[in-house]
Amino acid sequence: MVPELSVLLASVGNSRTALACASPDRLLRVDRLRNAEMGAMVETMRSYLAGSDAASEPLVVVSTVNRSVSAPLIDRLGADLSARVLRIGDDLPIPVGTCLDADATPGQDRLLNAAAAFDRFRQACVVIDAGTAITIDFVDGEGTFHGGAIAPGAQMQLDALHEWTDALPALSFAAPGADAFGPNTRQAMLHGVFYGIRGMVRHIAERYAEAYLAYPAILATGGDAHLLFDGDELVEHIVDDLTLHGMLAAFRVAGAAEDAGR
Known about the structure:
- The chain is α/β, with parallel strands linked by helices.
- It has helices spanning 38-49, 67-81, 108-121, 154-163, 185-212, 225-229, 242-260, and strands spanning 7-12, 16-22, 27-34, 59-64, 84-87, 97-98, 125-130, 133-139, 144-152, 217-221, 237-238.
- The strands form two sheets. The protein has a six-stranded mixed beta sheet, sandwiched between helices.
- β4, α2 and β5 (84-87) form a beta-alpha-beta unit.
- α1 packs across α2.
- The radius of gyration is 20 Å and the shape is globular.
């Protein structure tokens, strides 16, 4: 039961969708499902509503970097749950400024992460999202998104090593052993990917700090964030579900603006 429930959230990613129920100021429950599990997504949201104080017309906020999944999900939410759906970007603006090229089209997840980071820390931030891809973005002390860097995620790198070579094995991403040297092929692959990502993040964060002339807070989110950055001296904060927090901030800011306009 979620009696504080105010809104449902669905963040559609490249391979998985994060679902949440939330009060105006916090996430109450979060679930993640593979994008192919459309029916399970709807049933999970139905379970959020059971026993809650939600209105008869549920309110769902949807963000997406994968419209081939989000479009049918939105249709199902309307048909199966009689939900009112608000789409990030179309119905709810993301509460972050940008200074990008006119033709730039950053993913909603990157902008929502930046909005959530600034909403939480109120200072310049480097935001690392370690998922299917790795993004390393910068938001300044005024809450303006400057863009950043995009690289293949850890599993994508391992998959590419296997697919594009004759002898390297298929391998799931995991932390490498403690040895300085990879003593076998599998460990060598894990060492290369793990420390390659850490080194890339360090170098890019230092470039951002040099350009900004101040040292920003550095935080990480995403499915591989803990594996990659727990105990890393550079990354100060690991914030789970940052994109969902950005969606909740967008919902909260839009509601405050609507109240102020009445």
